[in-house]
Amino acid sequence: MPLPSLNRLLPLLMVVVLLQCLYNAGLPLSGDEAYYWVWSRHLQAGYHDHPPAIALLIAAVTRLEGDSVMAVRLAAVLTTALVVLLQVRLADAMGGPRAGWLALVIGLALPALQMGFTLATPDDPLALFWTAGLCFALPALTGPGRWVDFIGLGVCCGLAMDSKYTGVLLPFALTLFVATRRPTLLLSAKLWTAGATALALFAPVLWWNAGHGFESIRFQYRHGSGEADGFDVRRLLEFLGGQALILGPLPLLWLLLRLSVWRRWWPDPRQSLLMLAFAAPMAIFLEKALFTKIQLNWALPAYLSILPLLAASLVTQRRARLLIAATVLPAVLLTLALKWPLALGLTGKYNVQNRLYGPDAAAREIARLREPTDSLFADHLQRAALLSFLLPDHPRVMIPTQTRFSEYTRWDQGIDFGSLHGLYLSLDDRTLDLGHVFAKVELLEKLHNFRVGGRRAITYFESETEI
After folding, report:
1. Of residues 113, 115, 205, the one with CA closest to residue 160
2. Integer Cα distance of 69 and 202 in angstroms
3. Other C-beta atoms lying within 10 Å of the C-beta of residue 144
4. Which of 38, 252, 254, 449 is the most buried (most CB within 10 A)?
5. DSSP assignment string, 434-461
């Protein structure tokens, strides 16, 4: 039976978006998501942790839809749906409609993209602009290259870097391609215009960093390098094991075999472009994994470069249906474990949603104890952000005790905490630390909250501070 036209893809994705929104509405925000939501209420050209794209996306949606869980995560749902749509377009260009439909199935099943549908993080805009950049790069760098293709490529590269600093790996990989496959383009005004466009869009982030001692770039470089941790091959093996888990053993084996027979893909400029967009960032992550822990989501852009080739290859193989099933089914099972862990009997540390529950109960208790004149305090940026989000009036929450540097450090600078009184929420008993800031501190309550599907309680300490 012939496959339906790819023109029917949009209604299908609209149904997926609706179902994802309904699912997201029933799942509490994570601490990081709440922190990005706080950023959206303090828009600026950069933040200590990341560039501003996720804050801008959340601000755009919540200004229209209000400050709800569904609204915050709508930014993630829409960007990830566009990523899937662009993946289909790339696969169709590489292998035809059958490859396009397979890319749709893989995209919707892949755990990394399913988490993109669920959590609002900087990876969402990065994935969107990385994939869109590849859509412009193929005709710009391997074809006749119209001006609109080069301008679009520059816009996407700039916005990818505005999303996450690892976005710089996209222009890096594309520069490698041009230098090795199309060196004459180095003299093209179109290519230099694309570079100037990308730099212009990234300039506000650089300007913000220059005004703050390049703290954000230095922070992320140290975070991603970790040479101080020392050489340890076990970290590399852990990273590789995680990639096999996320991508699946068969696709990972396909990638290794594909890379090893470079004579088959190197002569084809379109294949070599996508392969370099995968291999260049992945090589960097593999080297860094020898010195520090590399988070599994960091490699997502590399996979977005190669999945269209995977789809195009699978539909042409013998026993294609068997290979497709072996690729998709493990991804579906892992996605089910991530999104419905209790339905599969996963509890305790095996239930990844455990960490989302607990702060909501603590916020309700703070709301019950709070007096109109009380200031609100917390011990960490995630608890401070969650308090601001969960309380109906979205109050300002401050961090008066020692914690890691964040935007709260900047926002709270110059505040005389000793002149304030109110309620303080922490994960540990910080009475002694608070005693150095406030004249009187009283431990009000230890709130034990059992996480959903967990056997161990998480304890929150609620203290009252007075002048």
Report:
1. 205
2. 29
3. 7
4. 38
5. HHTTSSEEEEEEEEEEEPTT-SSEEEEE
Cα–Cα distance for residue pair 281/172, rounded to 1 Å: 9
Position 72, amino acid = V
Residues 410-421: b if buried by 16+ CB within 10 A, e if exposed: eebeeeebeebb
Q: How far apart are CA 118 and CA 417, in angstroms?
A: 37
Average pLDDT score over residue span 452-467: 54
pTM above 0.85, yes or no: yes
Q: What is the largest CA-CA distance in the chain?
A: 77
- Note whether 64 and 231 are within 8 A (CB): no
- Quickly list H helices, 212-248: 215-225, 233-247
Q: How confident is the model at residue 275 (pLDDT cuts 50, 70, 90)?
A: very high
Residue type, 444: L
Q: Residue 239's closest CA among 306, 314, 289?
A: 289
CA distances from 155 to 162, 166, 194, 195 (A): 10, 16, 7, 9
Strand bridging mode 457-466 / 440-450:
antiparallel
- CA separation for the pair 238, 252 (Å, rounded): 15
